[in-house]
Amino acid sequence: MFGLNIKLLQLRNSQLVKSQYSNRPNTSFKDSKSIGIIFTSEGKTKFNSIKAFVKSLQDLNKNVDVLCFVPKNEENHEFKYDYFSENNLTLSGIIESEEVKKFEKQPFDYLYLLDFNINPFIMNVVLKSNAVCRVGFFSDESSQILDFMINASGNDYSREFEELLKYTKDLNHQ
């Protein structure tokens, strides 16, 4: 998996991390309208938890866009959401995908990164995103790119996603 193009992608990511700023005006969750979700396909259990999470947000009258990274040896379950894969990575370490470009341009009020471990593909999209507030689970990598994080206490995706939503609802940026 870690060929030259992956190394170039990681180098681009480290340059993007250095150029990040955290002075983005945040909206309270209650007033937010546009939500982005990005995740790595890791089996049917996680996929079903993502679907339930999307429904929870839609039930709160949020417009939700979802982007899935499908690694080698994984399935794109139901082809329900936009997706990209390692096949979209050029030799120069650039992700070439219309779905990714469209997702990155969206001015999401909140962007949920729903992976416990971040890969270079997801990291690159999050770093290029126009999202105002980026939320997800704590790790050394995520602490460089997310604005709000919680610790994942296990691998129960549904419970962890519910916890993340609970705490995000409490965010009231004034």
TrEMBL record:
Protein name: Uncharacterized protein
Protein origin, superkingdom: Bacteria
Listed InterPro entries: DUF6913
Lineage, uppermost ranks: Bacteria, Pseudomonadati, Bacteroidota, Cytophagia, Cytophagales
Organism this protein belongs to: Marinigracilibium pacificum
Pfam family, one: DUF6913
